[in-house]
Amino acid sequence: xxxxxxxxxxxxxxxxxxSADFREDSHPQKVNLGVGAYRTDDCQPWVLPVVKKVExxxxxxxxxxxxxxxxxxxxxxxxxxxxxxxGDGSAAIKDGRVGGVQALGxxxxxxxxxxxxxxxxxxxxxxxxxxxxSAPTWExxxxxxxxxxxxDIRPYRYWDAxxxxxxxxxxxxxxxxxxxxxxxxxxxxxxNPTGTDPTRDQWKQIAEIMKRRSLFAFFDSxxxxxxxxxxxxDAWAIRYFVSEGFExxxxxxxxxxxxxxxxRVGNLTVVARDNENLSRTLSQMEKIVRTTWxxxxxxxxxxxxxxxxxxxxxxxxxxxxxxxxxxxxxxxDQLKAKLQALGTPGTWEHITQQIGMFSFTGLNPKQxxxxxxxxxxxxxxxxxxxxxxLTTSNIDYIAQSIHDAVTKGQ
Length: 410
Prior knowledge:
Number of strands: 13
Number of helices: 17
Strand order of the largest sheet: 2-10-9-8-7-3-4
Structural class: alpha/beta
Helix content: 40-55%
């Protein structure tokens, strides 16, 4: 009898199961709107031209080797990543109270930050501090903080299903009622899965309450530049919080905005009160990294670092990112227009009011099942779609499928 006989079979990760079902479908008009990756108008993966250029530079650089990186990662990558998040003129950077930890993607950055907070925030080895995540949120947020040892993970109101927008009143009330020093996971831009972000005035209201009630902000920044096409615009909320004197964490991912999905390039930016607090914090994070992955990989970090630290390459990258963002914005405009032209019941203004890769369509589970079973259009059970899966050649079919789901699939 195997020593693993009592191990239960874990359920598959939903988005990867959806992709597996899509691959097995032989229907000629099948469409995958589930997986969170950019696709061109030909529905193909896109290697950014600037990434190809930098990869050639790396290959031709005779001075590079495969020695270990420092435990906290490639220094020039870490500093450039934090600079992109906080801005060239960041007072916090100039004051020497900003540091970074190279991580295995945005998930790794979240996990290192969560592990540190569980060990050292609000009391040594504190598992009872409430961690708040938006309702709904990216499914990994709950799992990352639970696996780090937090016992009290709570939702805060975010999505107003009736209005198909932000539930600001509910969000502010949950902030007011949260115990002091609670941790709040905030989406910096392009909220996943809803695509609905607070306005700048709403962010100011959120920050005022969090500051007054001593709540800790942990930003997840997976889509900077990818949401609007403007790096500074997409980082506004983070920079405002820093300007208001918050100590905070930022989990950065370069999967989307560099197209480096399989390189797992992430950074955890730490904004501390002063350099002494930063040094002590990074020293403990170094110990966590040492027993987690020991040393980070170099290739993806070198690509990002060379791009961010060279003005010409940086300008080219910003153009590549805008190309992706603009295509998504175009698909949003066209999908809304086609649904309105079809006379699809309900309002579809939220399609263009939302931003980023994902859209929360408002389709219910029965309508989603109709889309998959009858139309071979694959999307998450929540009704979330990846706007990158829409192309000029399939958008008519998708719009008609949504129309049919709303009118027949209820």
